[in-house]
Amino acid sequence: MLIISHNVSIPVDEIELSAIRAQGAGGQNVNKTSSAIHLRFDINASSLPQFYKERLLSLKDRRVAKEGVIVIKAQQFRTQEKNRGDALARLQALIKSVSVVQKTRRPTRPTKGSQARRMDSKTRRSRTKELRSKVLE
């Protein structure tokens, strides 16, 4: 079970994990071992509550495919077990991030004091510029 919150969890059989060959450094060992993990999670076929499904599908993230499948490739570590844990942790973090509801922004207004200071500075500046003009005879 992958635990998301107190009352939401995902059974492991809904998460498809496959080992693939990793890219990058690792010497000749990287050519013969499949240490990277390819995680696939179908949002629509999962047992997640509808709220989570809707938020995940509307997410603008390159890890979420158009078909509603989350694809995560973990190859940071040299062992398959660590990469499996990393992939599951990243899936858990992605689903948790969707559950947080953003506070609606209320636009603020300038205070009376700041408005008065702004008008005073404009008046002072205009007086300075007025004194620079030619004297009328």
Quick synopsis:
The chain has 137 residues and is an alpha+beta fold.
Describe it for me?
The chain is an alpha+beta fold and about 140 residues long. The chain has one domain (about 1-100): Double Stranded RNA Binding Domain (2-Layer Sandwich). The protein contains four helices and five strands. It has helices at about 30, 50-55, 80-100, 110-130, and strands spanning about 1-5, 10, 15-20, 35-40, 70-75. A three-stranded antiparallel β-sheet has the order 3-4-5, with helices on one face. The longest helix has 21 residues, at about 110-130. The termini are far apart.
The helicity comes to 25-40%
Order of helices and strands: EEEHEHEHH
The CATH class, by name, is Alpha Beta
Q: Indicate the overall shape.
A: elongated
Please give the alpha-carbon distance between the first and last residues: 91 Å
Looking at the overall shape, the CATH architecture is 2-Layer Sandwich
Count of discrete domains = 1
Fold topology:
Blueprint: E1 2-3, E2 9-10, E3 15-20, H1 29-32, E4 36-42, H2 50-57, E5 69-74, H3 80-99, H4 112-132
Antiparallel strand pairs: 1-2, 3-4, 4-5
Short key terms for the protein model shown above:
137 residues, Double Stranded RNA Binding Domain, 4 helices, two-stranded antiparallel ribbon, alpha+beta, three-stranded antiparallel beta sheet, 17% strand
